[in-house]
Design a protein that fits this description.
It is a single chain. By secondary structure, the protein is of the alpha/beta class. The N and C termini lie close together (8 Å). α3 runs parallel beside α5 and α7 crosses α8. The protein has a single domain, classed as 3-Layer(aba) Sandwich (Rossmann fold). It has 9 helices and 5 strands, in the order βαβααααβαβααβα. The radius of gyration is 17 Å and the shape is globular. The structure holds 2'-deoxycytidine-5'-monophosphate.
Length: 220
């Protein structure tokens, strides 16, 4: 009898605009697994607080907003804006917000068959036993250019310099917080997408996960 859990979890972590979202979506298709963009949870908490006029540094109010969050709130296009990304990074420093969102993510990860989750702490905190872990990076300049193009396509007017400053600030906050800081899990495979097209990166990710899946399948 195998003691392998009946779910195959793929953890995709990395900084803003590294390509991890597109990679996670591609992996979901390639391995027929549902995908959760965990950044949306934090974005939703930040946006709910801003709509209610709350202070993002108020950890009590942030924990309440996180506890009330439901899956049907995650499709709001307002979660994709530049302001929502910044608000998400600020509420994500509160340990009680992270605790409140943990069960939702773990339940998603442990569904039958498995799942793909992308975020900052999937391989380290949410699913440390995931058999496939990727940490996707790219230089701040490349990421800023990608994010600027996305925002432009969404109709947001902002300079590339400002987006680069956002990215650097978020990297520092997300990687420097005390609770669940963004960092590669010791067993994650690093994938630097700076010099890659998105198709090339998705392909490289698929090959890494295929190898991890073969190892997982052969384990007892
Ligand atoms: O992936 P994203 O840019 O949508 O994430 C927005 C912010 O949410 C990010 O700057 C930090 C926070 N976040 C987090 O702390 N942990 C996660 N697993 C996902 C996102």
């Amino acid at each position: 009898m195998s003691d392998r859990p009946p779910f195959f979890v793929i953890a995709v972590d990395g900084p803003a605009a590294s390509g991890k979202g597109t990679i996670a979506t591609g992996l979901g298709k390639a391995f027929s697994l549902p995908v959760l963009d965990t950044g949306l949870l934090y974005r939703c908490v930040g946006v709910l607080m801003q709509k209610a006029g709350e202070d993002l540094d108020d950890h009590e109010a942030a924990a309440c907003a996180a506890a009330l969050l439901t899956a049907d709130q995650l499709n709001d296009p307002a979660l994709r804006t530049r302001a929502a990304g910044e608000a998400a990074s600020r509420v994500a420093v509160h340990p009680r917000v992270r605790d409140a969102l943990m069960e939702f993510q773990r339940t998603f990860a442990r569904q039958e068959g498995g799942a793909v989750l992308d975020g900052r702490d999937i391989g380290t905190v949410i699913a440390p036993d995931a058999p496939a872990k990727l940490f996707v990076t790219a230089s701040p300049e490349v990421r800023a250019h990608r994010r600027w193009s996305q925002l432009k396509a969404q109709g947001e007017r902002v300079s590339q310099e400002d987006v680069l400053a956002d990215i650097r600030r978020r990297d520092e906050r997300d990687g420097g917080r005390d609770t669940a800081p963004m960092k590669p899990a010791p067993d994650a495979v690093l994938l630097d997408t700076s010099e890659m097209t998105i198709d090339h990166a998705a392909d490289a990710a698929r090959r890494i996960v295929e190898a991890a899946r073969a190892t997982w399948l052969s384990a007892n």
